[in-house]
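Q: I have 277 residues here and want to know how they pack in 3D. Can you give me a structure?
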Amino acid sequence: MKIRTYIYIVAGLLILALNSCDKVDEDDRFVYMKPEAMGRNVLVEDFTGQNCKNCPDAHVVIEQFQEAYGKDRVVAVSIHAGGLAIFYRDEAHPNGRPYGLKTDLGETYNNFWNITSWPNGTVNRTGVLAHTSWGAKILEDLQKPSPVNIDVETAYDNSSRELKVDINTVALETVSGKIQVWLLEDGIVAPQAMPDNKTNPQYVHNNVFRDALNGAWGDDYRASEGASLDFSYSYNVAERYKAENLAVIVFIYNDNGVLQVIRKPLFDNDTEETPAE
């Protein structure tokens, strides 16, 4: 009799618990918390050339804004292209330093924007501007929120020279466009024509566009609000690139311009090589 009574009590408690669960409003069980928006970073595509004597003036503009706001906020890419740029030639420097910094992809981008004089460039891909007009647009876009957050992790294996890039994105609103991954290099010593009509053979070139990891125009990107999307890429780094000076930039863009851009060096200044998994 006691056992039967115990069973009735347990059954009653279960029914009561189930009924209590039924009273919880469906909307109150899972509450969507919108992630905090990152500030919008700015992508400056600087079309330049080693035979362009006015191009160092554009490099100074970039340096000033990067000093003021950081290379992570003002992400610059120096794309050597056009009639005043020089293609890489192995024989130019027996010590292995590259002479020319022009690339085929750089030419593709230069032709797309129909750039015929240098320096010129785009700020967040909203039209071509002379370098003297970059500042106002940079300041304007730094004040905008980003509709998508991007997180980037890199791993580099020194023996195989394989670079792995893992990307996580979270859309803060419905986003449609392309995701692009580029490789940049700093600290390249190569000749540059200067405003005083002389050539500096020891000019230090930074933010130099090297290659795209996912094609000339990137991959399709479509995400609804709250959606988290992951992307992974592998890339074999050329011997002539110095891995310690390389950085990956990832940006999402559409017809309205660049929605967000992230710069991620392969190595932090205070760390050693990051092993590939």
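Q: Anything worth noting?
A: Confidence is low (pLDDT under 50) at residues 1-22, 270-277. The two ends are 64 Å apart (CA to CA).
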